[in-house]
Amino acid sequence: MYNCWICKDKGFIIVTTIKEGYKYDYPLHCNCSMGNREKIDYTTDKGTHYFTEPISKYYDVKQLESKNRASYIKGGIDKNMIKKEVDVLYQKLY
Ligand SMILES: [Zn+2]
After folding, report:
1. pLDDT tens per residue, the chain (94 residues)?
2. 15 alpha carbon to ligand 1 midpoint, in Å?
3. Span between the terminal Cα atoms of the chain, in Å
């Protein structure tokens, strides 16, 4: 069981998006106590330094929380569900 069902106590989630043919993975921080540590800074492989954005900017966190609870009960991660969420994010960003 987790204290935070939004990020499953990681403090962040990784989302993937495709821009101009390149795939990007980037973190969004959670608003829980773990997330407060994660949002301080983030440095990419290329040395770009920036602050993460909150999960709540792109996701309905209540919905995400209930999905995480549901997939935990089912005993695994539903890959199709994740893909759907990434598609939704993609549409929101571009
Ligand atoms: Zn969290």
Report:
1. 899 999 999 998 988 888 889 888 888 889 898 887 656 565 667 776 667 788 999 899 999 999 888 887 766 555 555 566 656 565 565 5
2. 15
3. 35
Residue type, 47: G
Taking the centre of ligand 1 as the mean of its atom positions, its distance from the CA of residue 52, in whole angstroms, is 14
CA 64 to centroid of ligand 1, rounded, Å? 11
pTM (two decimals): 0.61
Distances (CA, A) of 41 to 36, 60, 74: 10, 23, 34
The alpha carbon of 56 and the centre of ligand 1 are apart by a number of angstroms equal to: 11
CA atoms within 13 A on the CB side of 25: 5
